[in-house]
Amino acid sequence: MNGERAGWQPIGICFSVYDILSARPPARKRSQREGDESVKILVLNGTYRPNGSTTELAAAFMEGARGRGADVDTIMLRDQKIGYCTNCLKCYGFAGPGIAPCCMKDDMDELIPRIAEADGVLFASPVHNGFVTGVMTVFWERLSWRAARPGGAFLNSMSIVSRLDNKVRAFASISSAGGMPERLRKFCDDGTPWLKSNAPLILHGQWIGDMYAGADLEHMPASDEDWRRLYFLRRLSERQRRMAFALGEKMAEAIRSGGLKPVTMDKMLPPALRWIMDRVYAVSPPYRLAE
Ligand SMILES: Cc1cc2nc3c(=O)[nH]c(=O)nc-3n(C[C@H](O)[C@H](O)[C@H](O)COP(=O)(O)O)c2cc1C
Question: Of the residues 129, 180, 184, 232, which should be mutated to test ligand 1's pocket, given the most ligand atoms within 8 Å of the CB?
C-alpha cells in the first residue's frame, strides 16, 4: 500500500471477497491418531504450595489423562529459574523460523521446547488477586513473543502468528480459589479468560475446557473470626476432584480424536472488524500506515 491510506474506500466490500480468496485453507482435520502414537500432556503448575489444592486438582487431572493412555509430565513453575522479561524485544524482532531467541539464559530455554513437544498443556493456578499467580504471569511474559510473532498476515493488518505450528495442541486450565464460591466466578476469575484467549493463539491449538474450584467451605462463616479465617475453612470437594479428573480424560480424548483446530487471528477478528481497526489507526494521529 502506498503512502497514507485513504479514509473510506468504496471497494470495502471487496475485502471480504479478498479474504475468502486469500484465506488460508482451514486446518486439515487430522485423521484419528494411531493407537500406539503417544499423547504427551504437560501440566504447568503456577502454585506456590506444592501440596496445596491446585496440585491436588492437577494430580486428579493427570490421573484422568493417564487413564486414557496419555504420558503426562508436570512442571512446578516456582521451582524453575525464570527471570523477569526486560522488554529488549530480541524475541519480538526475530524473523526466522522456530522458537525465537532471548537475551536471557535460564530455564525458559528448556521449558519452551517442552511445550513445542506437547500435544496438550494444562495451566493450573490458584486464583491470586482475581488472576493467575505472579509466577504464571512472569512465565507468560517470557513465553509470548518467543512462541509467537507479530505479523501482517492479512492485508497488512496487525496479527499474531504462532511460531509453534508444528502441531495443533489442546489447552485447558484449572483455577483454585480461596474464598470465592463458583457463583461469583465471573467477578473474580480473570485468569481463565486471559489464558483462554492467549494460549490457543500463541501456542497454536484449541481450548478444550477449564474448571474453577470455588470455595467449598467446611461451614458457612458465622463470625468475624470465621470471615478472617475464610481461606482456612476451604476444602476441596470430591465433586471438584472428579471434575479435574474428567478434564484430564477430556484432553487426552480430544488429542486422540485428531479433530483439534488452531485459533488464528483471521478467525478471532472477522474481516470487517479488522478493516475498521485499520481505519481507526489510520485516522488517529500520529499513526500512518507504512508503505
Ligand atoms: C496473595 C493471595 C491472593 C489471593 N487472592 C484470592 C482471590 O482473589 N480470590 C480467591 O478466591 N482466593 C484468593 N486467594 C486464595 C487462594 O486462591 C487459595 O488459597 C487457593 O486455593 C490456593 O491454592 P494452593 O492451595 O494451590 O496454594 C489468594 C491467596 C493469596 C496468597
Answer: 129
Report whether residue 180 contacts ligand 1, using a CB cutoff of 6 Å: yes
**Mean per-residue pLDDT, 70-89:** 98
Question: Nearest 5°: phi and psi at 234?
Answer: -80, 140
For residue 231, report the distance from its CA to the centre of ligand 1, in Å: 8
**N residues, the chain:** 291
C-alpha cell at 171: 489447552
pLDDT for the residue numbered 237:
94
Predicted TM-score (pTM) of the model is 0.86
pLDDT 10s digits, 174-196: 999 998 999 999 999 999 999 99
Distance from C-alpha of 278 to C-alpha of 51, rounded to nearest angstrom: 49
Q: Residue 128 forms beta bridges with which residues?
A: 131
In this prediction, residue 289 has a pLDDT band, given cuts at 50, 70 and 90, of low
pLDDT score for 266: 72
d(CA 24, CA 22): 6
Residue 54 beta carbon below 6 angstroms from any ligand 1 atom: yes
Domains, the chain, ordered by start: 36-283 (3.40.50.360)
Q: How do strand 120-126 and strand 169-176 relate by DSSP bridges?
A: parallel
Q: Which of 143, 166, 141 is nearest to 27 (CA)?
A: 166
Starting at the earlier edge strand, list the strands of the sheet with 120-126. Answer: 70-76, 39-45, 120-126, 169-176, 205-213
Atom of ligand 1 nearest to the CA of 231: 19
* E strands present in the chain: 39-45, 70-76, 120-126, 148-151, 159-162, 169-176, 205-213, 216-217, 234-235
Query: How far, in Å, is the centroid of ligand 1 from the Cα of 127?
Result: 5
User: Tens digits of per-residue pLDDT, 35-70?
Assistant: 567 999 999 999 999 999 999 999 999 999 999 999
Q: Is residue 287's pLDDT more than 90?
A: no
